[in-house]
Amino acid sequence: MSQTQTPRTPELPTTTVQLNHHAVYASDRRLSAEFLATILGLEVGAPFGPFLPVDLGNGVTLDYYEKRDELIQSQHYAFLVPEDQFDTMIARLEAVGVTYYANPNHTDPGRINHFFGGSGAYFADPDGHNMEIMTRPYVRP
């Protein structure tokens, strides 16, 4: 842990089920963690065993885990982001030359969607994970 990071105080036991962390397989954990952190405006944490964490700020951590000898199976990760930061994230994608799409099938390049009255976009990370940023959560039946 770096000198600028404060250790997390363990929280009291929860009374509800919550996602705490999720391992994200990557061929290069540093590259993938830094890519996502850069796009979302976050920081990569200190290594924790074989994991390289990106703290999402809501108590959930994505723990990047390197798997160099296996094909990485693409997964989907959706991030609810502040509306006032969405355009900045799109600009970061453009700055690093990553195409974003209005739909999850990646057939509408360079466009965003307006699902549920918000803004959203999909893009691939270095290992082909289908990342989504959205300013409004999906309305579920």
Let me know the number of strands.
7
Number of DSSP helices? 2
Measured by DSSP, the beta-strand proportion falls in: 15-25%
Q: What is the share of helical residues?
A: 10-25%
Overview of this structure, please?
- It contains two helices and seven strands, in the order E-H-E-E-E-H-E-E-E.
- The chain is an alpha/beta fold and 141 residues long.
- A four-stranded mixed β-sheet has the order 4-7-6-5, covered by helices on one side. It has a three-stranded mixed β-sheet with strand order 1-3-2, covered by helices on one side.
- A hairpin with a 5-residue loop joins strand 6 and strand 7 (130-134).
- The longest helix is centred in the middle third of the chain and has 13 residues, at 83-95.
- The relative contact order is 0.18.
- The model is unreliable at 1-5 (pLDDT under 50).
What's the topology here?
Blueprint: E1 21-26, H1 29-40, E2 51-55, E3 61-66, E4 76-80, H2 83-95, E5 100-101, E6 120-124, E7 130-134
Parallel strand pairs: 1-3, 4-7
Antiparallel strand pairs: 2-3, 5-6, 6-7
Name a few traits of the molecule.
single chain, 141 residues, alpha/beta, three-stranded mixed sheet, 24% strand, globular, disordered N terminus
Please outline what is shown here.
The chain has 2 helices and 7 strands.
